[in-house]
Design goal:
The protein is mostly beta strands. It has a domain of 81 residues: Immunoglobulin-like (Sandwich). The chain is 11% helix and 40% strand. The strands form two sheets. It has a four-stranded antiparallel sheet with strand order 1-2-7-6, with no helix packed on it. The protein starts with 7 loop residues before the first helix and ends in a 14-residue tail after the last strand. 10% of the residues are buried.
């Protein structure tokens, strides 16, 4: 006899997949995240998005990036044969492995690339301890 059990984790995963499939497709923005002793550097590929159209939030150990990729206007009388360029709203939330200091975050958009630097909170940084000899 074979017994099959469904754990609560599997049920949650199945629900999440079903919900994701039922929603309209969302725009996926590719990211790169790097860490060093002082903080995190995040780069996001956002061609066509102006800095004023981005919203960035930093809270505890999370960074949220959202905005809208513009829809390109087509000339009248021109037939579109292929349209693969993403348009519409996007949102990404990252959970980083350390508390963040939002007051020291800096962001800029250069040539369609968002560059975001977020410092670790003082309490999350490694502390060097001096060892005394007796």
């Amino acid at each position: 006899m074979m017994t099959y059990t469904i754990s609560p984790l599997n049920r949650r995963m199945q629900r999440a997949i079903a919900q994701a499939e039922s929603r309209e497709p969302r725009v996926h923005i590719p990211l790169e995240v790097r860490a060093d002793d002082d903080g995190f550097s995040i780069r996001a590929f956002l061609p066509g998005v102006a800095a004023k159209d981005l919203k960035i939030e930093v809270l505890k150990n999370r960074v949220s990036i959202s905005g809208e990729l513009p829809e390109f206007a087509h000339e009248e009388g021109v037939e579109v044969l292929l349209a693969e360029l993403p348009t519409g709203s996007f949102s990404r939330t990252l959970r980083l492995p350390a508390e963040l200091d939002a007051s020291q975050a800096e962001a800029e958009v250069v040539d369609g690339m968002l560059m975001l630097r977020v410092a670790k909170a003082e309490t999350a940084r490694a502390q060097q301890i001096k060892v005394k000899a007796k």
